[in-house]
Amino acid sequence: MDVSGRGEFAAIARLAARLPQPPSGDVWIGDDAAVLPPPGERLLVATDAVVAGVHGDLDFVSVADFGWKAMAVNVSDLAAMGGRPLAAVVAVAGPSGTDLDGLYEGLGQAADRWVCPIVGGDLAECAVLVVTVTVVGSGDGQPPPVTRAGASAGDALLVTGALGASAAGLRLLRAGQGDGPLVAAHRRPQARLAEGGAARAAGATAMIDVSDGFGADLGHVLDASRVGARVEKLPVAEGATMVEALGGGEDYELVFSAPDPERVGHAFAAAGLPAPIVVGVCTEDPAERTLGGQPLAALGWEHRWR
Amino acid sequence: MDVSGRGEFAAIARLAARLPQPPSGDVWIGDDAAVLPPPGERLLVATDAVVAGVHGDLDFVSVADFGWKAMAVNVSDLAAMGGRPLAAVVAVAGPSGTDLDGLYEGLGQAADRWVCPIVGGDLAECAVLVVTVTVVGSGDGQPPPVTRAGASAGDALLVTGALGASAAGLRLLRAGQGDGPLVAAHRRPQARLAEGGAARAAGATAMIDVSDGFGADLGHVLDASRVGARVEKLPVAEGATMVEALGGGEDYELVFSAPDPERVGHAFAAAGLPAPIVVGVCTEDPAERTLGGQPLAALGWEHRWR
C-alpha cells in the first residue's frame, strides 16, 4: 500500500499510528521537534543517508530491507563508539508511489531490534528515494566512547566476525540465487551493538564499523591514530571471496584495537557474545599497512562522490 | 570549487577543515558519531530534508542559499518549541559536481547565526540534491517546551511578523526582479529563535512555525489542540498578496496561542524583539475556522507527497 493522493500530512499521521507511543512527558512524532530525556553525561549523534541505487538496489532488496538498512547503519555508528541508541528521526525524500508502509515496516523492525524508537521525521517529494536516519544515543559511563583515534603501536587488532558476506550476498542475488545466509547478510545487516559495548568496556582504544570495506575503514583508524598495521589473516565469511572480505564493505562488523585481547575475549564471553578474532597488530610506522606480508592495497570501496 | 574526482573521504576532510573545532572532550566531524555534552533536562531533536526543485529552485537561489535554508528550517523547528539548538548534523546526497563548498558556506553561515555548530555528517552520491539537517537542542527550564497541542478556547492567536514575503520574493525572482527585502526573505529565511523563547517564557500554550502556509500550519495547531479559531486579520508583508500571506509558506514566522497577550508583548519588548501581532482568538468549536468572518479555506501549501 502506498500513500498516492493522500498528501504528506495524512501519510505522516498514518505512519505515526503504526509506531510505538511515547512515555508520559515525551513528545514524539507530530510536533515540530521531539522532546526526550537526555543522557546524563554524553550525547551521541550519528547521521547517514541511504540512496536507492547507491546503498541498495531495489531490484534485489525490498523497500522494507532498505528501511532496515537505513536504521542499521546508524545504530552501527553508535556501536562503533561503544554507545547505545536512545531514539531516531527519519527523513524520507522519495518519488510518488513509494511504498512508505513497507519502508516503515523495515525501519520499525530495526528500531525494535535495537530499542531505538522513531520519534520524529519528515516526508518530501524527490525523484530518487533517499532515507536519512539520525540516531541520538548515550555515551555515558567509563571508559569514554571509543573514537577512531586512540590506537597505539602494540595494540592487537580485532574484528567481531567474518567479512565479505554482504558483498557475496549481493553477488548471489545478481546471479538469481536469492536465498541463504549470505543473502540475508546483504538484506538485513546487523549492527554489532552489544559487541561495541563489550569492546569499550574491555579497553578498546579505537573502533570503527566496516561500512566501506575493511581496507578503507581500517585506514580511517590508522590515519586518525597515526599508527601502522600488520594484518596476518582476515576471517572470510563462508562462500565469500577474499576480495569481498577486504573491499566489499557493508558487513558492519566492528574493527577495533585493544592492548589486552585476552581481557576482550573474557568480556565477550561474559556477555554471551562470539569471540572476536585477532587479525593483526598496530605498529609504529604509519606507512606500514600489510596483509600477510603484502601491501594492503586500497581495496576499500567508497560511496564515491565523483 | 567542487570536489570532482576527489572521493567522499577527501571531501569530508576538506569540509571539516572549514568548520569550527570542537571544545576539549567533544568529538565532532570525522568519527562514527559526534560526542557532545547533553542538556540537563530535555533533549530536543528535529529533522527536515530540503530537496532541490521542491524546497528551493537552484535557478533562482544559490547553493549557499539552499544550505542556509536547510539549517534555518531546522532551527525554526526548535524555535517553534521555544527551544535552543545545541548542534547539527548534515547529510548531503547529491550529484557529481555539486558545489559542496558553496553549500557548506550557507550551512555554516546559518550555523553561526544561530550558534548551532555542525558536528557531523555524511556525503553520498544521488541524482538529486537532498540536504537533510538534524538539529539537537535543549528544552531545559520552565515552562516546558511548547507543543502544538496546548491551545485553549479564549487564548489569543499571535504571529511574530508579516507573512507572504518568501512567496512574493520567489514571484519577483521568477519575473527577473531579483533584489530587495522580499527576495532576501526567500533566499535567507530567518528562524525566530529569540521570539520562540520569549513566547514560551510568556506563557504560550501552543506554537508552530509557518513553513507550509499560515492556513495549513494554523490547522495543525487547531487539530492538535482541538479548538477552533476566529482570525480577524493577517499581517501581509509589504509587496506580498493576501494569497501569498495565507498560503505561501516558508516565512518561518511563529504562530502561537497565549492567554495573556499583554504579558507576551512585555516579554518581547523586554527582549528587544518586535511586538508580535494579535491576529485572532481560539474558540470552542474545532469546526470554526474563519478569517474576517469567511471560512478559512485550506489554502496552505504542502510539499505534497502525491
Structure, briefly:
The structure is a homodimer of 306-residue chains. Chain A is α+β, with helices and mostly antiparallel strands. Chain A is built from nine helices and twelve strands.
CATH class category label of the largest domain in chain A: Alpha Beta
Q: Distance N terminus to C terminus of chain A?
A: 36 Å
Helical stretch tally of chain A: 9
| Main beta-sheet strand count, sense and barrel state of chain A | 7 strands, mixed
Oligomer status: homodimer
CATH superfamily of the largest domain in chain A: PurM-like C-terminal domain
The CATH architecture designation of the largest domain in chain A is Alpha-Beta Complex
Characterise the protein shown here:
The structure is a homodimer of 306-residue chains. The first copy, chain A, is of the alpha+beta class and 306 residues long. Chain A folds into two domains: 7-138, PurM-like, N-terminal domain (60s Ribosomal Protein L30, Chain: A); 156-295, Alpha-Beta Complex (Phosphoribosyl-aminoimidazole Synthetase, Chain A, domain 2). Chain A is 31% helix and 23% strand. Chain A is built from nine helices and twelve strands. Chain A has helices spanning 7-17, 63-79, 100-113, 165-174, 181-187, 193-201, 214-225, 242-247, 261-270; strands at 34-36, 43-51, 84-94, 118-125, 130-138, 156-159, 206-209, 228-231, 254-258, 277-283, 289-291, 294-295. In chain A, the strands form two sheets. Chain A has a seven-stranded mixed sheet with strand order 7-9-6-10-8-11-12, with helices on both faces. In chain A, helix 2 runs parallel beside helix 3 (100-113) and helix 2 (63-79) runs parallel beside helix 6. At the A-B interface, helix 1, strand 1, strand 2, strand 3 and strand 4 of A face helix 1, strand 1, strand 2, strand 3 and strand 4 of B. Strand 2 (43-51) of chain A pairs antiparallel with strand 1 (34-36) of chain B, so a sheet runs across the interface.
